[in-house]
Here is the input.
Amino acid sequence: MKRKAAYNTVSPTYIHNTMPIKLQKISTINGTVTTTDYVNGFEYSNQTLSSLQTAEGRVVWDAGLNHFRDEYFIKDHLGNNRVIISDLNDDGILQAATEVTATYNYDVWGL
Here is the structure.
């Protein structure tokens, strides 16, 4: 099953199986084509492993450090990600003041 959406200069195409589980995303950004494959929790970008899902979050490739690093997801009681924290400076210590990479705040009333 193919689904295509178009935005200004980005044109992603999603390929799902019948379940529907996302198998592949093909996106064109300013003429550059990027293919992302999703295989059992592993994510490949242009046939190179870019991340994998873990029970606590995910492991992502960090080109600046030239190795994989962990991203930990802190979830609320409904299972929504509220905070993503990662050891950005590779010192082995997670510091909440400097290494929070994303926060998500949800309005209880949907406003």
Notes: The chain is about 0% helix and 50% strand. Strands lie at 2-4, 13-16, 22-29, 32-39, 42-45, 48-53, 57-62, 67-75, 81-86, 100-103. Residues 54-111 form one domain.
